[in-house]
Amino acid sequence: MKTAPFDYVRADSVADALAALGSADDARVLAGGQSLLPVMALRLATPELLVDISRCPELRTYRREDGVLTVGAAVPVRTLELDPAVGGAHPLLVRTLRLVAHPEIRARGTLCGSLAHADPAAELPALLLATDGEVEVAGPDGPRRVAAADLFTGPFGTALGEGELVVSARLPLPAPAARWAVDEVSRRPGDFALAGVVCGLELDGAGRCSSARVVLFGVAGTPVRAAGAEQLLLGERVTGAVLDAAAAAAFDGVEVVGDEVHASADYRRRAGRALVRRALAAVAEDRS
Amino acid sequence: MTRDPVRVTLRVNGRPETGWAEPRTTLADFLRQELGLTGTHVGCEQGVCGACTVVLDGAAVRSCLVFAVQADGCAVETVEGLAGEGAPGREAVHPLQTAFREASAVQCGFCTPGFLMTALVALRERDDWDRAALRERLGGNLCRCTGYQTVVDAVLAAAPEVRALEGEGGRR
Description:
Chain A: Pfam families: CO_deh_flav_C, FAD_binding_5. The complex is a heterodimer of chains A (288) and B (172). Chain A is built from 12 helices and 14 strands. Chain A has helices spanning 14-21, 36-41, 77-82, 84-89, 91-97, 103-106, 111-117, 123-130, 148-151, 227-233, 240-248, 265-284, and strands spanning 7-10, 27-30, 49-52, 62-65, 68-72, 134-138, 144-147, 152-154, 157-158, 165-172, 178-185, 195-203, 209-217, 224-225. By secondary structure, chain B is an alpha+beta fold. A 5-stranded mixed sheet of chain B has the order 2-1-5-3-4, sandwiched between helices. The A-B interface holds A 1-10, 20, 23, 30, 33-34, 37-38, 41-42, 49-50, 52, 54, 78, 101-105, 107-108, 188-190 and B 1-3, 6, 22-24, 26, 29, 45-48, 50, 53, 56, 59-62, 64-67, 69-70, 118, 136-137, 139-140.
C-alpha cells in the first residue's frame, strides 16, 4: 500500500529537527526509514509530519572515545559493519549487525532508529541492554541520557518523550577479558528472531565466572535480562553442568509472548533455552 | 514544510533526471511513474520481497523503502542502466543478464531486476563468493518460480565477466 500523505521537512541540524518536531502534533523522525516506511505502508502509522534527519552532518558521524563507541543517529549500520576499525574495537557489534535483516536494509537502516523503534524481536536493543549502553536524547527540555535498562518499556515502546530525538547511541566497548556471543533462531537468515540471545562472561584467574550477562530477545515485549541464568553462572566454573542449569533457568520470571503466525510461546521458550546453552558454551570455550 | 509535490533531481544511470514527487512518493514509484523507468518492479511495497532493489550511491537498497525526496541529488542505478547502446564497454545485454538467460534463472521475470541489481553490487563487493555465502547475500530477494538454484548458478557464472567489465570503469 502507499503511505498516507504527510508533510516533510529535511532538518540540517538537531536544533532544526527539534523545532520541526515541536511544530506538529503527530511528527515522527525519519532517519533510514527501514522500520518506519513499512509501518507507514501498512498504515499502522499515519504521521502528520516527517522530520528527515538523515542528512544532518552532526548526526552522520561516529567515534571511539574513552572506551565507548558513540554512533550518530544518521549513520547507516552497514557503514559500521564494513569499517575494519569498528570491527576491531567492537567485534560483537559487527557480529550482531550481520544478523539484522539483509545488506540492502542495513545500507539505510540506523542503530539509533532500531533502538527508537524498539521492536522486541530486534537484535540491536538487546545488544544495548546486554552491554549497558545508553542513548543520548535531545528534546524541548534539553539533552539527557537514557540507559538501555530504562529505555525499552514495551513492544515498540520507549521512554522517549514528545518531541524528543535520539541523537546518538553510546556503546561501551567490551572489556578485553570478556567473551561475548550473539545467536538467534530464525526461519531464514535475515528474518526476525523467533528467539535470540546476547551473552557475555568474564572469568577470573581461577576460571570462575566473575561477571555474567545473558539477554534474551524475540521472546518477550522487550529485550530482557535472563537473571536466573546470570545468577547460576556467577562465581562458578563454567562446566557443562553449570551451563545446563543456567540455560534451564534462562526463562525463569520471563513473560514469554508467542503468536500464532511465527512461533508459540512454548516454542520460543524451548528454542531459547537451547540457544542460550549453545551460546554460553561458545563463550565458555571462547569460540564465539 | 509541504505535502505538495517538490522537485527531485537524480543522476539515473549516469544521466541527470528531474521530476516532481509528493513527499510520500517512494523512489520506486518516482522511477516508474515520473521517469518512465518501469524496469524496477514494485512487489510488496514494504521492504520484504526485494523486487524493487536499485543501487543508490553505490549501495543496493529497497527503492520502496526510500522516499524520492530523500534521494534528491543522489546517483541511482537501475536495471535499465545495465546494458544498451551508449554504455561504454557494454554489449546490448549485460553479462549478468546473459547468465540469467543461459542458466534459466528467469521464469516469470518479476523478481529479475531486483536480483540483477543485488547481484551486481554483490559482485562489486567481492569476486570469490562461495555458493553458501552467495545464497545468503542474495537472501533478501524473493523468487516464487525458480527455487533459487539457477539464480545462484547464474551469478556465479557471470562473476568473472562482471568483474572484468566493472574493472574497465563500467560502473557509473
